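Appendix B. One record, verbatim.
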Amino acid sequence: MIYLNVAGLFPFNQAVQQEVANTLEQFSRLLYSEEGIYYYRETMQRCRKNVAQWLHVANPESVAFAPNATTASWLVLSRIHWQSEDHILTTTHENSTVLKEILGLQTQGVQVHTLDPTSPTELENEIEHYLASQQVRAIVISHVSHIDGRIFPIERIAKLAHAHDAFLIVDGAQAVGHIPINFERWQPYAYFFPGHKWCAGPMGTGALILGERFMERDALGRDKKQEHWQPLWADFELGTQNIGLIAGLAKACLIKQEDGLKTNRLEQIREEIQQNLSKISQFKILEWDGPHSPGILSFTFLDKQTESQLQSKSDDMTWKTFSLPKNPSQTGIRLSWSSDITKTEVEYFFNLLQSSL
């Protein structure tokens, strides 16, 4: 089986699985004794610090753990006190589960505007237009598109959002562990990501990073002076957490930090795939006039016969199929790979493409 869907679920790392098992075994000996409570708290704080250090987050207390990115998005959106005249900007490239949470706010009278940009400049201009003409409360956008790997200009969008007093909420599902992330350069209102994609962590994990404006607690609608201080993550971690899984996520982040993102290798593979695909007239590469992530490339079919033949021969391949945002009746294929993919596997993929023509 040749696996070209690491953007959906990264292959499990044995060291990460061992960290999960060791942590749960240790805690099972202690449970909720005084020593067990101390172990639980210390483990959670250590994991917070590991994630914060890797992503250059100044305050580890702003890192809250969540079971997945969808839950994290719901937690953020549900904490904002929406007004009926509020507007949200988003794009056609958002994950369907996150988009469902966004559209659900329409029941509160919130208006959602879905942008479909063809370049970073066009996206910035559209956002600036809405910010100047509408009461935009929030911009909810992916850092990297899960459809075709395009990288949105988050740093520049953050400056626009701050200038117009709008919340920037970023889905980092396809970014963290894939491209460099540095929170010292820009401060979104909130940023969330799952552990099981490019982080190569366990399923059932994720993290929510809260920016400086959340530090002020203004979105929670409370008077900070009238409440006892508590860490910011406490508002978002609901109930007792699975410290085994969270320790596994922290271990995965540590491995990524030590090994690096191996961007050059990912880019070499992308360039090879792109060059070969561009020679086949029956396929069209999906891209925009802007930067793309190194580990994702998507294409579509120019005729139904080629699509049908390729799908019938793909038993030995795993990739992601999806409907194109502009044309839901048209199918696209997303390829995503790790740095461990071999030349033989890439050649096998192209032999499969050629045999479908």
